[in-house]
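Deviation from plan, reported transparently: adenosine-5'-diphosphate complex.
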Amino acid sequence: MSVLDLLLGNRNKSKLKSAFKAAGLTRKIKRRGQAKDLEILPTIHSVRYLDKRTEFVFTLPNGVDPELVAKNDYVFKQYLGTQTEISGNLKRFVVNVYKGRMPSQFDYAYTDTDHRLPIICGINRVGELVTYDMALTPHLLITGETGAGKSTQLRSVITQLILSRGPDQLRLVLGDLKMSEFHVFRNLAHVEAVCYNAGELTKQLDWVDGELKKRGKLLNEHELTHISELPSPPPAIVVAIDEFALLREEKAVMRVVEDISAIGRALDVYLVLSQQRADKDVMNGRLKQNLTVRMAFRAADAINSRITIGSGEAAEISIEDRGRFYLKREQLEILQGPFLSVEKARALLKPYKRRGVDSSDSPHKGEYPVPTLNDPLGLLGDSPAGFAGGDDDA
Ligand SMILES: Nc1ncnc2c1ncn2[C@@H]1O[C@H](COP(=O)(O)OP(=O)(O)O)[C@@H](O)[C@H]1O
Ligand SMILES: [Mg+2]
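Because the crystal trials were delayed, the predicted structure below was used instead.
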């Protein structure tokens, strides 16, 4: 370590200590006969200068509320700069001060992963692509104000799923209550239906409900823990609904959605729900708890951010930063979601287009391998019959 690093290190340590004090992360101990209390600060264990960031590790004194760290996120940013991020729990925390700014835009490109149901989240602070497997960490909740980037994120998530799995391995039920976002997915080989109202969705979810029951029975009969252990497993089903809160009064929809959230994982049935807020007026607590992966785009205020990710950061995302969000799994991470235009999505999805079938009233509900297609198995091979490549609404 150079002299400069040492000097810098001391300067940064003292900044960090000032932040500890301003954030109230100290413990005061009364001393007999002394006017001033003894103030115990968190212990700084290490400072590392890395390529794209400086990393501090500290632990709190016993008795200091760890929630104060997240609550005072802004204090750390005030002292160490806006590119500061803190993660940790209970006692041990890591502070990262990044050198560059967050990348502001990146374009979606198909990504080959090992995941069975790959979710492409976005790029992180240092430009790495963050992905995960929905088959392992099921059920995704996306929240954020209008214009923050929810529907765009859904578009790239659904497109990636379609490009990653064949129609005999993945079935999609899509809900677009604003009737504005999912046209591009109509009449695709993977798509059971794009539903624009509660009635259509109820019909599709009846089918999903039947699948839950059938698959549950199969698990039971074969004494399996996951449906994919069957010799020829049924396709994964993903139910993705944009602006889900518009369905809050729809009991039939809610019942099936809650069931999927509770038992879907072992049955290979998954949820992706997006809505502006996730408070209990629009989503009951049990359902919310089962949506374990969260993407919080810009929130109206810290309360709404906290409802989704447990802390207030999403309220600090700037209105200009469209597609910026916090991904909450075990840790919280800020990401920039991929931008995929409707035109590009349409071009990518063209090979899966079906001709002359209106998927909204396609009579699936059949046995495996799956329905709605004249030739469900030959479609991706050399039989072009089912695929046209014409425009969707034509
Ligand atoms: N990942 C992104 N990168 C760049 N711009 C984005 C991104 N996501 C959204 N936008 C921009 O923001 C606008 C609103 O996004 P949208 O997904 O419709 O928000 P929401 O569904 O939350 O209302 C889009 O039309 C687009 O111009
Ligand atoms: Mg939208």
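The pocket of adenosine-5'-diphosphate (ligand 1) is lined by residues 105, 144, 146-152, 297, 322-323, 337-339 (CB under 6 Å). We consider this an acceptable substitute for the interim report.
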